[in-house]
Amino acid sequence: MKRMIPILAGISIAMTSFTGSALAAEHGEVGKEISKQEQQKMVNVAHRGASGHAPENTMAAFQKGFEMKADYVEIDVQMTKDGELVVIHDTTVDRTTNGTGYVGDLTLEEIRQLDAGSWFSESYAGEKVPTFEEVLDAFRGKVGILIELKAPELYPGIEKKIAEALKERNMHQSNNEKIIIQSFNHESMEKSKELLPNLPHGVLAGTSWKNVTEEQLSEFAMYADYFNPNMNIVTDELVSDVHEAGMEIYPYTSRSQEQAFHLFDLNVDGIITDYTEHVYYHPVKNN
């Protein structure tokens, strides 16, 4: 797959210039102008939508991510008691809605009754937990969608249901890299890759993978196109090893401008972030 870090040259859009200046100021470089010829593009993934600005995993957050020109919105998919696919991060509804209980113990109708926005701000009162199909239908062709299977071990058959939903919409082809599927459950990704061989897949890795070996990365590369780790374990060596294995690396989750700049400096391919505005442009270091 092509690495998406081209050097941008000759860009005359005013917003670009403004963004570069704003980032320079926040990064302690007040008074230094960032040349438009010295900016690089980073794949910008809006984590659970633009979750720094709107309630995570809601249509409002995904719309905000689209409006802020993220390359992808990242969504978490689980399954209800009656076998419907819904977009929510936690395996319970307690934190991000006014309800209680496990997602897998509630029907779609019960989950749709919940308020998924008030916890974030009263201005988002009434936001619903969206279905997977709603997100696909609303944002297909508008923005890339990074689909995370959340705890798929709790939902037997979820890989097949996701594949069916994508195939019904003819979204199971390579589609210009607009759909990526990932999970912490690597066996689930092997299953999904068999069902959707033309779509790129990724393995998520927590801090326990700090000492991942080149052999393990090579094994992942047999079915995965991305190795997306916790940002705290990313080093120059890891980035190099991931690239050597033929994969790309999108660390998670950047929540500050400093963290975004640090990941830029490590030459990652993309950044999964709550604040998409942190990941637009970055001055290229002079060697």
What percentage of amino acids are in beta strands? 15-25%
Largest beta-sheet details = 8 strands, mixed
Helix content: 25-40%
Overall pLDDT score: 87
Helix-strand makeup class: alpha/beta
Number of E-type strands: 11
Globally, the shape reads globular
Terminal Cα separation, in Å? 27 Å
**Run of helices and strands:** EHEEHEEHHEHEHEHEHHEE
The rounded Rg comes to 19 Å
How many distinct helices? 9
In the predicted model, the low-confidence regions spanning at least 5 consecutive residues are 1-39
Walk me through this protein's architecture:
This protein is of the alpha/beta class and 287 residues long. It contains nine helices and eleven strands. Strands 3, 4, 5, 6, 7, 8, 9 and 10 form an eight-stranded mixed β-sheet that branches. Strands 1-2-11 form a three-stranded antiparallel β-sheet. The chain is globular, with a radius of gyration of 19 Å. The two termini are 27 Å apart. The N terminus is likely disordered.
